[in-house]
Predict the structure.
Amino acid sequence: MHAWLCENPTGVDALIWKELPTPVPAAGEVLVEIKAASLNFPDLLIVQNKYQMKPPLPFVPGSEFAGVVRAVGAGVTGLREGQSVACLQGTGGFATHVLAQASQCMPLPDAFPHVDAAAFIMTYATSHHALLDRGQLQGGETVLVLGAAGGVGTAAIQIAKAAGARVIAAASSEEKCALCRSIGADASIDYGRQDLRATLKELTGGKGPDIIYDPVGGELADPAFRSIAWRGRYLVVGFAGGPIPALPLNLPLLKGASIVGIFWGGFAQREPQRNAAMMQELAAWYAQGRIKPVIDRTLPLDRLKEAYGLMGSRSVKGKLVMVNG
Ligand SMILES: NC(=O)c1ccc[n+]([C@@H]2O[C@H](COP(=O)([O-])OP(=O)(O)OC[C@H]3O[C@@H](n4cnc5c(N)ncnc54)[C@H](OP(=O)(O)O)[C@@H]3O)[C@@H](O)[C@H]2O)c1
């Protein structure tokens, strides 16, 4: 097998494409031949030693992938050789093969292509958990999605629409805004050019959004929160913009609003049954055509460094997926 190896987490340049022995699955594991692996923002942070999870060195980055089971370890039930699966396990995906915990593999129906499946779990699970569970989104409410053309942002637009909300998508260029409208956003704000607060006021008749979904942080958080509706919920999803914002606590007081933390990985670990039910609902929505990953482009796995460069420079709309020939 071949894999991109991180021996020294000093950044993307230090990754090395290496031939390694193909491993044999232990009890409870399966060997997956990887067909597709998507980039998620943590994949960028982890190779720079900036992510909360710090795997022992050396490691193979790539948190999320889909492929075909090629060998099954002892005690594994429910998965067989030749079965297509999707898996999110933090590392291992930027390779031709990987060992995966059978319990973390989601069996895929034939109608679920590997490229879509590799771009599904992290973004849709995060956005579903954020909007419907933590945010208690109700039909007819207005949702503002920041960084709306990104991975979790595009999933948030589709899930909020599936739940009957009105969606305002905010992103840094008109091109990104157009993509958001094309996948269902009712209105958009180009915060590279337009004033966020003034435009939000205009778009909501002065009321403000009921829910703000924020995977960006940085300078957007303060003006966004100041625009929130009475009883609004501000969903803290991530800090792709860099700085972690600090909000004055008089703001939630004055709006009767909540600041709600989102940690989907923690939810999946602590509440596995609720997470499994949520994943089942998401798979059904995919089968019904209500949600579909936005794939910016696919690239062969040997162009991983180029893909990382696109993500780091905010050039991606939706998801980048690496594929094995
Ligand atoms: N809490 C959770 O459970 C959870 C789960 C998954 C992901 N996350 C977090 O959510 C965030 C987004 O993840 P993602 O996979 O959706 O990433 P992504 O596809 O790269 O999207 C991030 C968006 O952030 C915006 N952005 C602003 N400043 C940026 C910068 N300096 N560099 C890169 N992007 C910047 C970009 O939109 P514009 O150009 O339009 O501003 C970009 O589209 C990350 O912080 C990630 O760690 C959290």
The first helix runs from residue 41 to 46. The radius of gyration is 20 Å. Residues 40-42, 122, 126, 147, 149-153, 171-172, 176, 215-216, 237-242, 262-265, 311, 314, 316 surround NAP (CB under 6 Å).
